[in-house]
Write a structure and sequence with these properties.
Elements lengths: L7 H8 L11 H16 L3 H18 L5 E5 L15 E5 L18 E2 L9 E7 L8 H11 E12 L4 H8 L2 H9 L3 H8 L4 H9 L3 E7 L12 E7 L2
Parallel strand pairs: 1-2, 1-4, 2-3, 4-5
Antiparallel strand pairs: 5-7, 6-7
């Protein structure tokens, strides 16, 4: 599923979707949103724990490449840094300060930015795990990654297979059920609110801005389209 759009008009159609807007959440969702998000990222609860274990595939894929200067986009509660080793500097971009403010792993972070456009240096490795599906202006963020990546550096992107069958069934039969029982609300609304970009869109944008040297699907169910939960892109400057 490596999409290299040869037609400028086709690529432009994708670009014209941005910047995107989130749907509006009603008061019921707004009341629980922040607490739910923090619990989800911390892995608290049975379904969140299972989800975190499954997501470890993405962390392991990204950690296979070591680098001296690393930038992580969407670092959350700093749950990835423990997978990395042999680095000199580790910087992060994370606007949700409550996620990491009390983390003991914060001592390993050199610089903390709230947005990517605050960053002004080159990195050997830029990584992002379960973040690109959330970004409202993904083309802009990708342009910034191109500017911040060193000549021989690597961009590693791992995301859920949003827009495909297996990922949808996965959350429907786990987190979706637990969320419904606890809050009497549909989890699909939060997914729609959070996941503004599909795997297909992310793939097209990456392939038209980088050389995607590797693309892997998680082996859960079947390693083919629509039957994987997560995907991994390894990108270099063209």
């Amino acid at each position: 599923m490596l999409h290299k759009l040869k037609s400028h008009s086709e690529y432009q159609k994708i670009l014209n979707r941005y910047p995107k807007k989130r749907i509006e959440l009603n008061d019921e969702y707004k009341k629980i949103y922040k607490r739910h998000y923090m619990l989800n990222r911390s892995g608290e609860g049975v379904t969140n724990t299972i989800s975190q274990k499954m997501e470890s595939w993405m962390h392991r894929k990204v950690s296979k490449i070591s680098a001296m200067n690393i930038l992580e986009i969407g670092a959350g509660n700093l749950n990835h840094i423990k997978y990395e080793s042999n680095y000199n500097n580790y910087d992060i971009v994370e606007p949700f300060t409550e996620l990491y403010i009390n983390s003991p792993l914060k001592k390993h972070i050199r610089n903390i930015f709230t947005s990517l456009d605050q960053v002004d240096e080159k990195y050997d490795k830029i990584l992002s795990i379960a973040t690109f599906e959330h970004l409202l202006n993904l083309p802009k963020e990708i342009d910034l990654c191109k500017r911040l990546l060193s000549k021989n550096g690597v961009l590693q992107i791992a995301v859920p297979c949003e827009g495909e069958i297996a990922f949808k069934l996965g959350w429907m039969l786990s987190t979706g059920i637990a969320f419904k029982l606890k809050h009497k609300l549909n989890y699909s609304k939060l997914i729609q609110y959070e996941h503004v970009n599909s795997l297909n869109e992310i793939s097209i944008l990456l392939n038209n801005n980088f050389i995607v040297s590797k693309f892997h699907r998680s082996p859960l169910i079947l390693p083919i389209k629509n039957f994987s939960f997560y995907a991994y892109f390894e990108c270099k400057l063209s």
